[in-house]
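INFO batch 0412 | record 1 of 1 | parsing
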Amino acid sequence: MDKLKQILTAKEIDERVSDIANQISHDFENSTPILLGVLKGSYIFLADLTRKMKIESEVEFVRLKSYNGNTSTNNVKILYDFNKSLEERDIIIIEDIIDTGNTLNFLCKKIQELNPRSISIASFLVKPESNKFRFKIDYIGFEIPSDFVVGYGLDFNEKYRNLDSLFCLINK
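INFO prediction complete | emitting tokens
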């Protein structure tokens, strides 16, 4: 049995997601951005964010794989590609967590080739100590240390996504 230690409550998460939704609504008040969710981890953050936004938006998904268990493979694979045209559109990439930045680097390059109007990044969590690419992240939920975390969409071998709070996984 894995041991979990709570690091963010559901209330703290809800308040921060509301703040981010308000920021995005203000920044894109004259646009209908495409929210590009990176599956599977971002789906809860994306759903909550979308419901709280005060502007119209479209939702699209991409599924990438760069982890095996709790270890980054440094090799990004596309498991499910988006099929919507991104040309001359405002794109907001919705991530659950930015750790090494490998996945985001891969995705940004792919999107840039499709001539979007703009690319913004919203991430529920950021691990600044691990991020080797130093992206401009437009909307950050929380910065956390390099611990392995689960809950609020993040998993360990497909477990714990359903938790409404964020936990550090102690016994991996």
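INFO post-check: Residues 85 and 141 are 28 Å apart (CA to CA).
INFO record closed
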